[in-house]
């Protein structure tokens, strides 16, 4: 059975919709340049609404320890999702915080997938996400997808999730073609960047559950 993470939630109503319609994970973005950025206070308010069976994922871009400390403390995070981290930095974060760790691997070519190997023994899961044109500005959440055929025959070194450009209309095909056990979406359930749409969240989760 495939499960789903709804990423970049920033309002109680859309968070509640994700939970009500069956998300296994909800994501809070701690990256000021993102239209989905949440403050520590906002994250705390949102996290308090999340029941125990739904995992709270904090999304970070090469974060300092202080940022992680504050986010974990405010939102009682279950998972740290790291973008643009080296294996050494991810290992240090794991050693210090001891929380489930996901590492995003940005994909455009088949060769990009090999970056996952370096996180064996460090990350619990790799999130294969589409490489963005300007990863310094925004390494995720741009609604871009990569060629799913790149995953054909790939031997995954770790548990993994599929991300990048998914939406209610394409997620079933994405799961069928890749065999993903977890899918992640942000833009595809928004009406505009940073504004989640309850109906699209419901449609996405319904499409996943129908498989
Ligand atoms: O969503 C963001 O704004 C974001 C900013 C900085 C780093 C990561 C970010 N998102 C990470 C996610 O997990 C997104 O869900 C993932 O990139 C897929 O996004 P989309 O293609 O828009 O569905």
From TrEMBL:
One of its GO terms (biological process) is L-tryptophan biosynthetic process. Residues 4-206 form the N-(5'phosphoribosyl) anthranilate isomerase (PRAI) domain. One of its GO terms (molecular function) is phosphoribosylanthranilate isomerase activity. It catalyses: N-(5-phospho-beta-D-ribosyl)anthranilate = 1-(2-carboxyphenylamino)-1-deoxy-D-ribulose 5-phosphate. It is an enzyme of class 5 (isomerase). Its EC number is 5.3.1.24. Belongs to the TrpF family. HAMAP family: PRAI. This is N-(5'-phosphoribosyl)anthranilate isomerase. It comes from Sphingomonas aerolata.
């Amino acid at each position: 059975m495939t499960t789903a993470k709804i990423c970049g939630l920033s309002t109680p109503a859309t968070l509640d919709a994700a939970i009500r319609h069956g998300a296994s994970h909800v994501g809070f973005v701690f990256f000021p340049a993102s239209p989905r950025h949440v403050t520590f206070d906002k994250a705390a308010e949102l996290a308090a609404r999340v029941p125990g069976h739904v995992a709270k994922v904090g999304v970070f871009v090469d974060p300092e320890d202080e940022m992680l400390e504050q986010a974990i403390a405010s939102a009682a995070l279950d998972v740290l999702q790291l973008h643009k981290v080296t294996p050494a930095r991810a290992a240090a974060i794991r050693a210090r915080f001891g929380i489930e760790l996901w590492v995003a691997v940005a994909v455009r070519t088949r060769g990009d997938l090999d970056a996952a190997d370096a996180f064996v023994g460090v990350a619990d899961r790799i999130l294969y996400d589409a490489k963005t044109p300007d990863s310094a500005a925004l390494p995720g959440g741009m609604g871009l997808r990569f060629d799913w055929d790149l995953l054909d025959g790939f031997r995954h070194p770790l548990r993994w999730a599929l991300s990048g450009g998914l939406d209610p209309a394409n997620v079933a095909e994405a799961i069928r073609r890749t065999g993903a056990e977890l899918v992640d979406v942000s833009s595809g359930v928004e009406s505009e960047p940073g504004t989640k749409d309850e109906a699209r969240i419901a449609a996405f989760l319904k499409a996943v559950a129908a498989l």
